[in-house]
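re: ur question from earlier - yeah i can do the single chain one, its not a big deal. heres the input i used so u can compare w yours
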Amino acid sequence: MHRRVAPEIPAYLQETYWWAYLHENALWIFEREWMVNLILWGNMKRLTAQVLGETRLKPRSRVLQLACVYGDFTCRLAQRVAESGSRLDLVDVAPIQLRNARHKLAQHRNVSFQHQDSSALHYPDDSFDQSVVFFLLHEQPDEVRRATVREAIRVTRPGGKIIFVDYHGPKRSNPLRYVMKPVLALLEPFAMDLWKDELSSWLPSDIPIRDVHTETSFGGLYQKMVVTR
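and the output i got, formated as tokens:
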């Protein structure tokens, strides 16, 4: 019987984000709700609510979340998914993040944990009723980001929704524009792509899409894109 080979941690993740996601000390530093909320300028609950507001499921649906998230985002999503008797698959390429998520979500019996690369998923086409990509794309280089967006859409069934929440280029009148630009350029260099181009520019051209809805919040610093297949 053929066994899938576990994905290697991508070079860009090891080189750029080892301090945030791969080092043991990262869990101690970042796995705190107040820390996540601080990083997002007090917007964690609002941004989480944007995703939960889009999560209206039929009974026994199947939901995908690409990449683990510090804080209680996945706990709240798992609770919402459980309300309809549905299940959540949580995918991450870093074993340390999956171990942390298993510990954090131990009480949520409707969650399964999958060691996969978001840009090359093992799932067949049309496997999920909804997919969620929460603050992942700004951490990926262009070609990986494009592949991740395509994969999220590919594995979502026609009629299902793919919810993306991430950074966006803030308005010039937003003072955080001048604070965040050097911070992101130093610590999260791929994020500046999302300041220059809309998320919709990474949508695939070879998969039929029924609708795309986008909106920004907090003076344009954050964006939500909901794709309906």
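The first strand starts at residue 62 and ends at 66. not sure if urs matches, ping me
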